[in-house]
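Fold this sequence, please.
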Amino acid sequence: MSPDNGNLSPQAETKCITARPFRAQDRMACAWLFEIIQQEIFADDDPEKFSRERFDIDTRGEEIWVAEADGSVIGFASLWRPDPFIHYLLIRRDWRGRGAGLLLLNELLARVDRPVDLKCRIDNDSARRFYLRNDWYEAGRGHQDGVCYIRYRKEPPHHCR
């Protein structure tokens, strides 16, 4: 059950999904999402890699935006500005496919003035399809800690290649 509103579901009447900057009071909901979603997606990995306690460590120094529906946090994305690199895009399973991920990516892209990269594990087929469908292009491949990934890139909307 979600710490902010476990009863909210996409089947409920929803006005809209919005994106906004992270606030301190979002920490518990985002840490819960960090743990639950990654353990679901990467079920074969060590669950300690995705513990709630790692949320603050793994997002330190990153700009975080949250997706909200009817006052409940349903996802978040984080941006490391110096590179720029999207480190996390995590949306609750029951809210995927409704625009929250794209909304968060667009918010982050609008805040940078050069191409943005992200890594996607090769075994995460649904995420790979999502990025390609939304005009991210493959900029390289690699592996880290025994995991193969694709590096995707996208130009910000006001950037010319």
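Strands lie at 17-21, 63-69, 72-80, 85-91, 116-121, 137-144, 147-154. The longest strand covers residues 72-80.
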